[in-house]
What does this fold into?
Amino acid sequence: MDGIHDLGGKPGYGEVKAKPSEPVFKHRWEAKVFAMVNAAARAGAYQNTDQFRHAVERIDPEAYLQQGYYGRWLGGLETLLVEAGVLSTQEITAKAVSLGGRESDLIAARPQPKMPSVGGIPAAAVEASRPLFESGDRVRTHSQVPIGHTRLPQYARGKVGAIVERHDVWSYPDASAHGIQAPPQYLYTVAFESAELGFAENFSLYLDLFEPYLARAGSER
Amino acid sequence: MTDHNSPQGIRAEAIESLLIDKGLLSAEAVDAVITTYTERVGPMNGAKLVAKAWSDPAFKADLLADATKVVNGLGFEGGQVDKLIVKECGPMDHHVVVCTLCSCYPWAVLGLPPAWYKDPEYRSRIVKEPRKVLAEMGLELSSEVRIHVWDSSAEVRYLVLPLRPEGSEALSEGELQQLVSRDSMIGVTKLPSL
It folds into this structure.
């Protein structure tokens, strides 16, 4: 899913606003959100981190940019609680109004009645019995626009890089974010040169990419 | 820590109240989170690793070979280090870490990330113009230094092992720990000479 969360390389943002020191939680409600994200998992509102990440990606884009990290988490949390049927939007809003909130306040959560049953990469991953690539192999990332959750950023789509490290198999986010059972997939650290990514500065960039995102360079389907 | 009445603060309180009513959240859970991530989990744990790596070549070799094993052995709380990789800066190589898709960060060794790490400015620009962004943040790197940007796109987490400050040769491991800043372990600053 192309969304506001996929920020790498996007134009229009200014200087990093770093502060010399800041509290871990600026407001108490931020720590509440952190605690509730853990509690929602225990309550069965979601099964894995990929589902939570995808819920955050699906919140209102304006809220994503304006409400900060814990505002995004709050939107993701409410999305999952409502989708799982633990709470309803109406009862949350009624409670918020009783606590001094307004009906017109922007709600970050964007619960969907029915989630797409396909993940980021339509070609569902098959069992990975042995890794397809090894260090030094040149690979090209796929160029499909994902339908759902994926961990291949848009700026690295359809680009050629070199495998620098092969990791073990990991749960495949493109499937698990959608509650789909799929075999775990090999993960690789892939190095890209900045020129290949279309960036003017000269540097090396590394991404950790799942095998289904990759094809041998020069032999793409 | 304030508890101001922003719409988000009110909505969080509303959800908290409903979850407590349903028995899905304990009233103490928030304080437990605050205690854990303000007192026990933070960059002091990463600083221990860095200071020990500077002081003990065998430990450094272990850390660079398998940081996950080292961290598991030390029993740090906080999570987000199922797979940890340490990248060592050298005179001609500088490493810097980001997560462009969300805000992945090695909590057990660095604590919860600072706001700027999670903001769109850093996430959009550090993978496009790292030399410029680092210079804006106060780190001017010579044009001969190669920059390596690590975008944490899966469950691997990265920690930067910064260059040991010049003039710190006589310091003990405990003294060295005090020199290691969080930002040096993300890779957005270098430690100043003593």
Notes: The beta strands of chain A are 138-141, 160-170, 185-193, 204-210, 214-216. Chain A has a mean pLDDT of 91.
